[in-house]
User: What shape does this take?
Amino acid sequence: MRDEHVIRPLAKLAATSEVQGETERRAGVYTPVHGASSTASTKQFAVLVEFCKRSIQGVGLGLRSLHYQSIHQTLPAIPWFEALTDNYLGPKAIPLAQLCSIRQQYPITLHGVGLSLGSCDALDQHYLRQLKQLIADTEPAWISEHLSWCSIGQHRVPDLLPLPYTDEVVKHVADRIQQVQDFLGQRILIENVSSYIQFEQSDMAEWEFINAILKQADCLLLLDVNNLYVNAINHHWDPLDYLYRLDPLRIKELHLGGYSLKGALLFDTHSQPVHEPVWDLYRQAIAFLGQVPTLIEWDQDIPALERLVQEAKKAEQICATNRTAVNSRLSRHYADA
Ligand SMILES: [Fe+2]
Assistant: This one.
């Protein structure tokens, strides 16, 4: 039975017999796609959804709900937004209508924290089904998750915990990523996380661990440049050596954010502008990788949208100055491959 208050992407509407032959798009015919997972708020949304292109390029911003109004009012010249997957799942979800209203104007990516890819628990099938539906509803350019774990048994922690770097863990995590990709029917990006401890059991470098998972799972990398820098400082690694040893062909997105100094450690608090050493590393990353879609993350003490746009423009300028540069390191990598 038709529910006239639930949104559905136009692409899907056109593919269903329920709307074939419809000549007035704004007539607003809506078909439930969430079933029991739809919230009351979502069902109040009654605008036909037509999405813009899916692919991303340039420097985007993390989508935060306090900016929804500013985005709608000003339509900032930002090429794409990254939405936090978990904000749109579960009983406390932000109404999907809000995300779709942004999606009508901008390409998006979905970035998750809840899959717990490194956990020893079975993958959460309910979460995966919800994620698959969200993908179908919003048509993101990429789906990404963290190379970490955050749950064991019934216990969950609001953090992204690091893993020991061993062959056994590589196989474990790669198998789980493959399960996720098989279920979703597409490759995902995994993001390197920040860490403040190292495991005695680790017998390989972090970059080696990441490359091995990328290869075994045949997945892609969201390289958080700030996290790379934070870990390099916390664990006394060479950040450039780490960067140049990653498989550049699998890096499809970059993250930039601000860290905080607490005692002798850096924490990726995302509460400040990007720091100068991270900008420097970003310049090296762009020189190494060429143009890679980049995202500005700011999750605490979030400023006005205009301030985030300024930060994105700074990243755009760095990309522009490298646009014509000869990418000698990457060329050498291809030659050696
Ligand atoms: Fe990140």
In short: The first helix runs from residue 10 to 15. The CA atoms of residues 5 and 124 lie 29 Å apart. Residues 1-50 form one domain. The longest strand covers residues 155-161.
